[in-house]
Design goal:
By secondary structure, the protein is of the alpha+beta class. The chain has helices at about 70-80, 90-120, 185-190; strands at about 5-20, 25-40, 45-55, 65, 125-130, 140-145, 150-155, 180-185, 195-200. Bound molecules: zinc ion. Zinc ion binds near residues 24 and 26.
Length: about 200
């Protein structure tokens, strides 16, 4: 269950003077408050939802909406309202979401850069994610020896329908009796053809 809703915060208070109250008809002053409404998710302000005003006659204490007031009072109030800006913290939830998305994008990009680097310079212990025997399945092969221009790998005895390698990438799962060799060029080609889709290096 997600808790969300609407809240408001006071942005500005003030006073407008020399106005005639539509209710008591006195020449008096009025006190106003401007509130910023905002949506929250779990009490984290997410985005602003406009403003609300309250205007009170200091003589008869009647409160008014802006539209109930005369043009001259409206104009005075609108001048006061100009610098009542929506506070930036009303957007904190959006900023937080943007940061999380940017963070995920950054990590994904970093991961891609690392994978390309690992393909270029294979190392002992590198684990390649490769296609399984059926579509939707993956398995792995692990480098157990590196020579000048080729690598030697053992295949995993297991396949997984999970896109994560960690479930099957266990030392005891590798068939260490059958060793296969690939040239570095072949490894690069397999990566280019997406037969190798990821590389894990410890
Ligand atoms: Zn009044």
């Amino acid at each position: 269950m997600v808790f969300y809703g609407k809240r408001s915060s006071r942005i500005k208070d003030g006073r407008i003077s020399n106005v005639t109250c539509p209710s008591c008809e006195e020449n008096t002053s009025m006190t106003y408050s401007i509130f910023g409404k905002y949506a929250h998710i779990y009490w984290i302000p997410t985005f602003p939802m406009g403003k609300e005003n309250s205007i009170e006659c200091n003589n008869c204490k009647q409160t008014f909406k802006v539209k109930e007031l005369s043009e001259s009072i409206k104009n005075k109030f609108n001048l006061e309202k100009q610098d009542a800006k929506t506070p930036l913290w009303n957007f904190s939830g959006l900023a937080l979401i943007a940061c999380v998305i940017l963070g995920i994008m950054y990590l994904a990009k970093q991961d891609k850069i690392n994978t390309a680097k690992y393909i270029e310079t294979p190392q002992f212990g590198d684990v390649y994610k490769i296609k399984g025997s059926e579509s939707g399945f993956i398995t792995t092969m692990k480098i157990i020896e590196v020579s000048k221009d080729s690598v030697f790998v053992s295949y995993n005895n297991y396949e997984s329908d999970d896109y994560s390698m960690s479930k099957i990438d266990k030392a005891e799962n590798y068939n260490t009796t059958d060793i296969y060799g690939f040239s570095n060029k072949e490894i690069k080609e397999m990566f280019a053809k997406k037969e190798i889709s990821d590389v894990k290096r410890k």
